Amino acid sequence: MKMQLFTLLLAIVAVMGCSKSDVQIDDTPVESPEPIVMDEMPPMMDMGGHPEHGPHGGELVELGKEAFHIEMMHGSGAVAMYVLDGSATKPVAIEAEKLTVSLKHDGEVKSFELPADPQPDDESGKSSRFTSTQAEMDQWMEAGAEGAVILQIDGKSYTGKISHDHDHEGHSH
Prior knowledge:
Elements: H1 2-16, E1 24-25, E2 28-29, E3 59-63, E4 68-73, E5 79-84, E6 98-105, E7 108-115, E8 129-132, H2 135-142, E9 146-153, E10 156-162
Antiparallel strand pairs: 1-2, 3-4, 4-5, 5-8, 6-7, 6-9, 9-10
Region (Disordered): 111-146
């Protein structure tokens, strides 16, 4: 919220611009600097301040009110989900043996489990990566299945909505 207020204030200053000033310091007239020009936000960032895609290039799923994120990777015959922090840039290793994903595709609903697959930097007994080699799950994800991922982080339950991103490459629909 503070960042949005600062950005808004900066935008107002940029629109108003600055003009020559009559302010004097040490009896020397001083001119104000040129107006500040704000470039558009880089395309890899959204208005929430985090990337549109995760560190591995995958789709992001929000958990809580951006307390955490899940990065989803699919399309190679397997599915990987990475638990990320609120900025969607750093891995967060959690104490979970698996993630449960419920998907709906062509009127059929099915649950899939992704066992923990710790990354080398994850703390012992924790994992920030969960993977499934079930070809059916990957096929459903590639076909645009929607649903939810459910997990617990520090004793609190989070549910993230999985909705298919129709604008990303690699899909033929």
